[in-house]
Structures are given as structure tokens and as C-alpha cells.
Amino acid sequence: MESFGAAAMHTRKDSMAHTRMTLLVFCALSAGVLAGDGEHAAAQAGKPPAQAQPELPAQAILPPGLFLFQTRTRDGSCNDAPRTGYVTSAVATLDGVPGSRTMTMQLLNSKYWPTWTLTVTEDNAIIGTANMNGAKDDAAGSSRFEIRAKKDRYQGVGARSYNSVVEGKRTRCTLNYDALLKPLS
């Protein structure tokens, strides 16, 4: 025979479990109602409910690791760029989760373009973007390249834009370059 304390304990445990279950059901129903309200509001505004974008599968073309990143100047708009054919080289770390479509590239010996965001597109192009001197926006300057796998490396083209003074006037300049990213083994 159970003692009164044990029976009270079961009742208290049952009550707590019932309260937790009630809260979970309430939260689930509330979330459903809120989502339904969003769809209803969208329909009222004459817009279809937002469709979730299908997530792309993991990519297998670009792993994190150590790389060599090089650019070779093709041409520039303001005549202040290094001569055509000028090559810059930097040691790069690609940081991220293997298979991720977005990674960070740090150029260890680059004063102007130290931090890049790399994105692998659905068709396996690799897009790199950076702001000059690691700025929050592209007001100081921006650089963008698109490269693709080619044997043991990734090759493509890119362009930088930046502010400069040409003939006493502040001008937005562009420099076009070839881009190369090669794993260091």
C-alpha cells in the first residue's frame, strides 16, 4: 500500500508532466496559428504565400585548406593600376565546413584585400567578393571574381573598383584581372 506522501508525489509528477505537455501543445498550436496568419495576410494583400527556396546539396568542388591566390592585371581604367601583366600573390586560408557553399578566404599577406567571401553556385562556379581594407561596405573599393575548376586549380577573371584622383578629380576606377586559386599541398 502506498503512503500518502508517495501518492501525492505521483500526483505532483503527473500534474507537472501534464503542464509541460499542455505548454508544448500550446506552443505548437500558436506557431501554426501565427504561420497561418502570415499566409492569410499575404493572401489579403494579393500575394501568394512565400515558397521556401530548396536548399542546394553540399558541394564537393572546393574544400577548406591552404591555397595560393594570384591575380594578373589585364587592364585598368584610370592608368594608376600596375602595368598590364603585373602579378600579385598571396597565401590564402579557406575556412569553413567541408561541403558548405559559403566559405571565408583570408589572404595572409594582403594589405588591401584581406578578407573574402567565397560562394559556390549551383553550377559549381566559385564567386569571390571582398571590400577594400576589410571595410563593411564597398565605398572604399570592392573586388569580385568568378573562377571554375580546371585540372588542379581554379581559374577565371575578376574586377576591382576603387576611388582614385585622376587629373584632380575623384573618380571611380576599375581594374580587370585574371584570377587563380591553387591548393598548396
Key structural traits:
disordered N terminus, Lipocalin, 22% helix, alpha+beta, 1 helix, 185 residues, 8-stranded antiparallel β-barrel, globular
SSE map:
Layout: H1 4-44, E1 65-76, E2 87-95, E3 102-107, E4 115-120, E5 126-131, E6 141-150, E7 153-166, E8 169-183
Antiparallel strand pairs: 1-2, 1-8, 2-3, 3-4, 4-5, 5-6, 6-7, 7-8
Overall mean pLDDT: 78
Main sheet overview:
8 strands, antiparallel, barrel
Q: Using the 3D structure, state the CATH architecture of the largest domain.
A: Beta Barrel
Q: What is the CATH topology descriptor of the largest domain?
A: Lipocalin
Number of domains: 2
Query: Helical amount among residues, as a percent range?
Result: 10-25%
Could you tell me the strand content as a percent range? 35-45%
What's the total number of strands? 8
Order of secondary-structure elements: HEEEEEEEE
Order of strands side by side in the largest beta sheet? 1-2-3-4-5-6-7-8
Any low-confidence stretches, pLDDT <50, length ≥5? 1-45
